[in-house]
# Entry
Amino acid sequence: MTKAKIQSKSGATANTKATCKVRSPCPIAKTLDLLGDKWTLLVLRDVLVFGAATYSEFAKSTERIPSNLLSDRLTRLVSEGFLEKQSYQTKPPRYKYIATTKGRAIRPIISAMKKFGDDNL
Amino acid sequence: MTKAKIQSKSGATANTKATCKVRSPCPIAKTLDLLGDKWTLLVLRDVLVFGAATYSEFAKSTERIPSNLLSDRLTRLVSEGFLEKQSYQTKPPRYKYIATTKGRAIRPIISAMKKFGDDNL
DNA sequence: GCCACTAACTTGCAATAATAAAGTTACTAC
DNA sequence: GTAGTAACTTTATTATTGCAAGTTAGTGGC
# Structure
């Protein structure tokens, strides 16, 4: 060991917003509390539309999400039940993220956004 | 005039993000560039679902948007063609914001979010 | 005329989140 | 043992948000 810096695995970085705050009982507001930012839905798009599964596949996506935000959004999507993290290989440790039933349920939102964008932007 | 502080009408506050930046040609990403934050779609929801029209009606909404953000989002939605600002009375100056055709086009997105929220949250 | 009140905003500032760039860990292949 | 890749972290800087208070323009009461 050249550096001796074991350090806790759970060290969260700057981007760990309080996902527990509920603004209102409105289903639209509750949905926005989970997905209402610039990156979360793009990660879900990569999974559901483009078939991305690994960290590096998300990172290669055209919008170039910063690596710490990708890490944060993946962690969040897993903890909220949209994605599941699976280890598919241990000997280099490799992971893939797959959509859960709840994750696939946002597909209509993405479709609606795609149609809006195609028609109006 | 008790204070003599005319000051320019165009003084933009802190919240004036660069709405011109285009991350990618993807219609979903372009839609998120416009609507991808916690408040913009709620303002549009207030217009399209709850029939809100005036500044104070938006401000009274259950999620309690800060007034500077409401001001910023209304300005932005008007400048991007989602809403139109109409003066309906001059003698107290009063305004109402109404959805344009483009504004009404985001209705399917809101409906999809409502359904997702009702089914999953 | 003066005071209270409402609508529609602005301004200032601390707190929070986003961005960019560099660093880390755990391997494989040459 | 040097280079390279995947999957992350860390640090430092910049931008956005949230809150409180202030402003402008006008109405109604006394």
